[in-house]
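Notes taken during the Thursday session

The instructor put the following on the board and asked us to keep it in front of us for the whole hour. The protein is PDE8A phosphodiesterase. We were told not to look anything up and to reason only from what is written here. First, the residues (128 in total):
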Amino acid sequence: ESIKTVLTSPENRILIKRMLIKCADISNPCRPMQQCIEWAGRISEEYFAQTDEEKRQGLPVVMPVFDRNTCSIPKSQISFIDYFITDMFDAWDAFADLPNLMQHLDNNFKYWKGLDERKLRSLRPPPE
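Then, after some discussion, the predicted structure tokens were revealed:
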């Protein structure tokens, strides 16, 4: 009933649509783990290339944390989840009940934390 009340306002519907688009844009940590890892790698490589190009051209480096020689991908993912994802998806979960997404988010956060605790900077642990 409360959802119906929220959706009766055109302004609220527009806001919800905008929030949903934003969530879709940054939802990688809510994907199944292997997809999350794959896309974290792709996104990191894009940022590494940007940083490389900024250095090559003598421009200010916009995201110094994404220096491919020093970056910890697990730390970057943990920070991203802590700063942007958790509160936003907790709110969506309260609104729309998203247990699968929230479970993926929890699993992925624990995965990145585990790599970071082992002082690993890569997407995956080394083969055993």
